[in-house]
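Quick one:
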Amino acid sequence: MSKMWEGRFSKALDSQADDFNSSIHFDSRMFRQDIGGSVAHAAMLAAKGIIGAEDADMIIGELGRILQDLESGALPVDFAAEDIHMFVEAELTKRIGDVGKKLHTARSRNDQVAVDIRLYLRDEAADIIQMLHTLLEAILSQAKQHKQTIMPGYTHLQRAQPITFAHHLLAYGMMFTRDIDRITDAVKRMNVCPLGSCALAGTTYDTDREMTAKALGFDGITLNSIDGVSDRDFCVELLSAFATVMMHLSRFSEEIILWASWEFKFIELDDAYTTGSSIMPQKKNPDIAELVRGKTGRVYGDLMAMLTVLKGLPLAYNKDMQEDKEAIFDAIDTLKQCLIVFPPMIQTMKALPNNMLQAAQKGFINATDLADYLTKKGLPFRSAYKIVGQIVAYCIEKNTVLEALPLETYQQFEPTFEQDVYEEIALTTCVEKRISAGGTGLASIEVQIAYVENFLK
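Output:
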């Protein structure tokens, strides 16, 4: 295929160099956005009298037919083309002749690709936000079923204090609401139109950039044409947001893997989201969660690749910036793969409340409540803390638990202990009396559920 830019050159580009230079193998996915941008550009050229109205109608009509043919498969992408922009323009010219060549008036590939990727990322970000909504709905479904299911909360992976399973799940719910906010904020900053910046300095034609921006759903235009073609901050910002989503999915996956193990056995994953072993018939492996955890590193790598590509580039456009697409496309594909399988894995997992309760009963996780009991009797917290530490050490030595210790023994450590201590350190009491906002008490859980529900609305 001949090159649009070949007039300056005396011989063809080396075939291997041509393949190395080409981006159509990955940027062809932006054909809808490329055609949409061209339609808006052609309409603007006609409105400003830069090309004739009949020519614009012919261009816009044929671009619509090219789009239909690409979507139906009637028109295969020619991977011998340099990029999707050149492919569409060449196909347009092949179909309507010299009129098609007028489309590129007052436009460069630099601003063309800059608008295409913004449009594409805006569409993909909307899909990812909707997928995160689905994940939040799955978390809410489980949380509503387990508002009073007691489990041990952990610090340092050591049993710490009693919480509810809903409380733990809703912590991830809060993370994913922030992820949606981060993506939304990044899209807001990205949603300005670079079309009309041309190569870097603008154009001598009297164009209307605001018209094309409005037609394409942008909030405004980029105010500096050099920045318009060389900015990829939005790629970095979205990649950072996507990497953060993956980090949250990975943390959740790690807990699912632990909870599904025989050592914890807090949950059982549905067979549809586990695999077996080739040699050990008893195995039920949490492979989906493990893969999500593993793929997190891949998205981190995409972010680092983007930052590294951009770090030394002078203004304005450089061919290095072609590398932006593979990184962010890979991150989008990877994240979407994870968000397809993760919500139904959460929705179908079965909690095992008895196992959670038994684990909570074994870890002295009501020790803080025992110290609080003494402070309410008038002891300074640090004194109460020391006494409870001594009582826990005694229990470990005697292979018993706080709930089973006789009152007489308690009173040997501190005379202010009374019969009501047993009610105070019961796990249900420990959970119910945590009345502070954001805590594990039922009233707080209801508030958290309502917050996520309202967020989704």
